[in-house]
Amino acid sequence: MMNMDISVTPNYSYIFDFENDFIHQRTRKWMVENWTWVFYYCGIYMLVIFGGQHFMQNRPRFQLRGPLIIWNTMLSMFSIMGAFRTAPELIHVLRHYGLFHSVCVPSYIEQDRVCGFWTWLFVLSKLPELGDTIFIVLRKQPLIFLHWYHHITVLIYSWFSYTEYTSSARWFIVMNYFVHSVMYSYYALKAARYNPPRFIAMLITSLQLTQMIVGCAINVWAHGFLKTHGPQSCNISQTNINLSIAMYFSYFVLFARFFYKTYLSPDGNKIRRMAASLAAQNTAKLSTNSNGDDGNRNANNKKLDINADLTMANHMHKAKAQ
Fold first, then answer.
1. Which of 33, 70, 158, 262 is the most buried (most CB within 10 A)?
2. Longest Cα–Cα distance in the chain
3. Which among 157, 175, 147, 179 is positioned nearest to 240, based on CA atoms?
């Protein structure tokens, strides 16, 4: 039998056994005892990516198209499932209990096993998501500051917040799952050589910017609730609020700068036009030489890969948002 307080949980149409078996006390105990290991993971991550860049400096790039398709597809499916399993709780709480509950009461973990389970998976997933950068390094794509800074800070903040059962995190988790479900689906299609309309890339960055604005607003509300209702009534520490708002504001600045340079600046438009022109020329060559030998086709395929990667790198880099 389910042991959930139905007054603060949505009416799930189906609950999996692994969700029903979730016991939040055990996961919190483990995280309290082990969360500082995240600093070692980040140190190893930095050594691997920058050491990897040095290692690849005078070596040919890897294509990795097949593994990249699988990687992005898996992450998109995980994010879609996470969004579907956590968003109903946030919507239910907002409709029946209001903003204060959504920001200050951690019922999404303590009283909702479905949302609690996917919150736990969300926190853990920030570690394997570091693998995004491995593809960038091995494929010799530009590794921008926003990408690795975002990965590290989200990982540290997520693990730290789980030790406190930060109540406002329900907002951050739902937003992140939703944005990632769109973003990783987009990257899976790009890796498979489909070409979604350009506005999709702009939409994803716009969603990320919106996410940062909402994140800052939630922290401002949390600070106000702490002042008006007292620390005992709102399950979020002032330290957590300070860290979170600094993180979200820095993300907003970096994503806004990225958006301008990629989509609005004259240099960005020039690069995109050049990449599109080169890709079109190579596509024409492939069509003309469709009856040629395998060597010519392989050479043209390599040119297409390079130009497709250039286009994707200038549309949007793999920088996720929490």
1. 158
2. 76
3. 157
pLDDT in tens, 58-91: 999 999 999 999 999 999 999 999 999 999 999 9
- Tally Cβ neighbours within 10 Å of residue 55: 12
C-beta of residue 184 within 8 angstroms of C-beta of residue 223:
no
Using CA of residue 24, residue 28, residue 34, residue 40, what is the dihedral sign? positive
262 secondary structure, DSSP code: I
The four Cα atoms 224, 230, 231, 237 give a dihedral, to 10 degrees, of 10
DSSP state of 13: S
Closest CA to 190 of 201, 203, 180: 201
**Coil/strand/helix, residue 9:** coil
Q: Which two tokens stand for residue 22?
A: 């979730």
Residue 150 designated active-site = yes
Tokens 């390094």 sit on residue: 137
Coil, strand or helix: which one is 61?
A: coil
- Residue matched to tokens 């860049």: 53
Cβ atoms 83, 178 nearer than 8 A: yes
Q: What is the dihedral of CA 292, 297, 299, 301, to 10 degrees?
A: 160
Task: Kindly give the interhelix angle for 131-138 and 37-56, rounded to the nearest 10 degrees.
Answer: 10
| Buried/exposed code over 4-29 (b: 16+ C-beta within 10 A; e: otherwise) | beeebbbebeeeeeebeebebeebbe
Q: What is the pLDDT of residues 134-168, one digit of tens each?
A: 999 999 999 999 999 999 999 999 999 999 999 99
Where are the strands (E) in the chain, listed by range? none
Q: What is the pTM of this model?
A: 0.83
- Which of 102, 86, 78 lies closest to 22 in space, CA to CA? 86
Catalytic option among 24, 92, 147, 150: 150
* Residue the block writes with tokens 């005992």: 232
The sign of the torsion formed by the CA atoms of 290, 296, 300, 305 equals positive
